[in-house]
């Protein structure tokens, strides 16, 4: 089977950003928002049948905006120079702000319903399936500003807060790097050069990468200062004392759970020190440099074509669940994946949901590395998560990032473990276990460095704007702490190069990755223990991710307490076996 490297978008909205169907649906959303706004002002707005109708409109607009927003993101990712897509994105932000404004009024109305009456409402068949989500909205509204102030903040954010977030994309779209043959590379293409097997070429690429971000650093410093400053001022006006309050709420987890997880990670990362020391010896250096951490070893296996990767992933998914394998095959066959290595694409990868089409789309730049195969499996895990929820009410499909990363990382684990088990040669096993350990390094160290940096940055930003030099210093200090000072060269401008720091819809786009990695490790252990019968239980867990706190989710489906370190330490210690295998496989290479 030959699979296309380019995705298909016309079945969603034919005609790209100028799609007549898209325009019609956005007009419908505008009309529904106006209708909802009028309903909320009516005298009988708090009566049961009116609340049911209001909620129906809330869900209908949500599904339209999610579909259109995902489509817009696809257009902008596949071509950073698509000016029509940029204009469409501006319209989406304005429409989303209008929706946010009316949601603020809707949430406040929910607060005005007496508790006893509210409980009766939620016991009725129309609202009972949404009980968790509606309670969540009602409770959060009590901790925000007055509706008119929240509405004003949302309106001002369009050209302020979100505008600065979009400016990051503008800066990156103008950046170019030079390949060995003199051709120009986009940031997305250049990032793939950082994993070159040739250490000299890799080092030269990293030097050029750092220089490129240094040249844009002043613009990016302004951008990050404005984004963080807006957030802090908004939190202050809401009466929130901690910059973690919003990300923790969005991830439906407690700070106690977050701290328990990081405590376990601090222990787990100690197990990686022998890996760092051995890899440095294999590369003939005293200490690894930043660009060495994720680099493949010189003896690693050859690259894998996209078709080979697709066949391999489908096969490995099938060893866990026929439903997961069938879904992955459908994604490849129906061209839901954009993987072509070409200029003009934005860097990174993502999976985005299309709730009205009941489909997903995956974006990445595929060059055949083991890391690329892992990314592909990772994004398919995201897609399957949405697939099992596609027939649920829209509000219950709004799951948090940390549990989203659970599904994706679980899919990665299936592929990496099966690949390691079936590897024939010592060299192939070495390449695979190295890639597997690198993921632990990413979640225990790289992600932790981002969390440490962002925490320090917000604390300093509360005192005033930061300079480029200050951001560099915070970044290197965070990397040294997170990597246990195991590197001889760090990445000062990582804060500039990483898109996640500039996303306006999700603050602290870091710790959910580590949560997902360790939480999925616990799920994976359960899957190995129970065998094929666990597939149905896994689907049930995924379906609950949009309607339970993570602590409740873990207690219900795994019978564990996430506020204790035990569960997290058990997951974090799993890397020890992989490190030992790595040391055994590389022993001969030192002779």
TrEMBL record:
Its cofactor is Zn(2+). Residues 19-49 form a coiled coil. PANTHER family: CARBOXYPEPTIDASE 1, METAL-DEPENDENT CARBOXYPEPTIDASE. Keywords: Coiled coil, Hydrolase, Metal-binding, Metalloprotease, Protease, Zinc. GO terms for molecular function: hydrolase activity. Gene3D superfamilies: Oligoendopeptidase f, C-terminal domain (1.10.1370.20), Oligopeptidase f, N-terminal domain (1.20.140.70). It comes from Paenibacillus septentrionalis. The keyword Cell inner membrane does not apply. Its EC number is 3.4.-.-. This is M3 family oligoendopeptidase. InterPro entries: M3B_PepF_2 (IPR034006), OligopepF_N_dom (IPR013647), OligoPept_F_C (IPR042088), Pept_M3A_M3B_dom (IPR001567), Pept_M3B_clade3 (IPR011977), Peptidase_M32_Taq (IPR001333). It comes from the Bacteria.
């Amino acid at each position: 089977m030959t699979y296309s490297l380019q995705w298909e978008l016309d079945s969603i909205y034919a005609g790209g950003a100028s799609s007549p169907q898209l325009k019609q649906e956005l007009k419908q959303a505008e009309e529904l928002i106006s209708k909802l706004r009028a309903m909320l002002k009516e005298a009988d707005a708090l009566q049961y049948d009116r609340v049911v109708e209001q909620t129906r409109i809330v869900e209908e607009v949500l599904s339209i905006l999610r579909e259109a927003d995902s489509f817009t993101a696809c257009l902008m990712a596949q071509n950073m120079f698509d000016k029509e897509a940029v204009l469409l994105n501006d319209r989406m932000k304005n429409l989303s702000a209008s929706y946010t404004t009316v949601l603020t009024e809707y949430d406040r109305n929910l607060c005005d319903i007496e508790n006893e009456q509210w409980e009766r409402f939620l016991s009725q068949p129309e609202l009972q399936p949404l009980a968790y989500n509606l309670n969540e909205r009602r409770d959060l509204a009590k901790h925000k500003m007055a509706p008119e102030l929240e509405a004003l903040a949302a309106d001002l954010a369009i050209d302020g807060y979100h505008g600065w977030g979009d400016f990051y994309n503008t800066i990156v779209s103008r950046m170019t790097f030079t390949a060995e043959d003199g051709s120009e590379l986009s940031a997305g293409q250049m990032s793939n050069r950082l994993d070159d097997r040739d250490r000299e070429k890799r080092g030269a690429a990293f030097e050029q990468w750092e220089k490129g971000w240094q040249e844009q650093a002043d613009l990016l410093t302004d951008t990050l200062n404005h984004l963080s400053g807006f957030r802090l001022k908004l939190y202050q006006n809401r009466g929130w004392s901690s910059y973690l309050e919003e990300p923790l709420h969005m991830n439906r987890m407690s700070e106690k759970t977050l701290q328990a997880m990081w405590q376990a990670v601090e222990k787990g990362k100690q197990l990686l020190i022998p890996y760092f020391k051995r890899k440095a010896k294999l590369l003939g250096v005293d200490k690894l440099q930043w660009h060495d951490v994720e680099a493949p070893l010189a003896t690693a296996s050859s690259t894998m074509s996209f078709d080979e990767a697709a066949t391999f992933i489908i096969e490995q998914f099938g060893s866990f669940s026929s439903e997961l394998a069938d879904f992955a095959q459908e994604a490849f066959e129906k061209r839901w994946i954009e993987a072509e290595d070409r200029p003009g694409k934005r860097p990174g990868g993502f999976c985005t949901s299309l709730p009205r089409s009941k489909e997903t789309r995956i974006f990445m730049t595929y060059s055949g590395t083991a890391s690329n195969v892992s990314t592909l499996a990772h994004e398919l895990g995201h897609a399957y998560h949405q697939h099992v929820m596609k027939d649920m009410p829209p509000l219950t499909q709004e799951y948090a990032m940390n549990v989203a990363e659970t599904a994706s990382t679980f899919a990665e684990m299936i592929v990496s473990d099966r690949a390691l088990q079936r590897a024939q040669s010592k060299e192939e096993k070495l390449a695979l276990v190295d890639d597997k350990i690198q993921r632990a390094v990413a979640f225990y160290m790289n992600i932790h460095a981002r969390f440490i940096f962002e925490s320090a940055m917000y604390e300093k930003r509360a005192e005033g704007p930061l300079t480029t030099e200050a951001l560099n210093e915070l970044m290197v200090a965070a990397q040294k702490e997170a990597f246990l000072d195991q590197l001889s060269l760090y990445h000062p401008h990582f804060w500039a190069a990483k898109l996640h720091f500039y996303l306006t819809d999700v603050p602290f786009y870091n710790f959910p990755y580590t949560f997902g990695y360790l939480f999925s490790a616990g799920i994976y252990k359960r899957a190995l223990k129970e065998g094929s019968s666990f597939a149905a239980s896994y689907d049930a867990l995924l379906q609950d991710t949009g309607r339970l706190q993570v602590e409740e989710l873990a207690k219900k489906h795994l019978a564990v307490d996430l506020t204790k370190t035990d569960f997290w330490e058990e997951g974090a210690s799993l890397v020890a076996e992989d490190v030992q295998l790595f040391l055994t496989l590389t022993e001969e290479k030192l002779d």
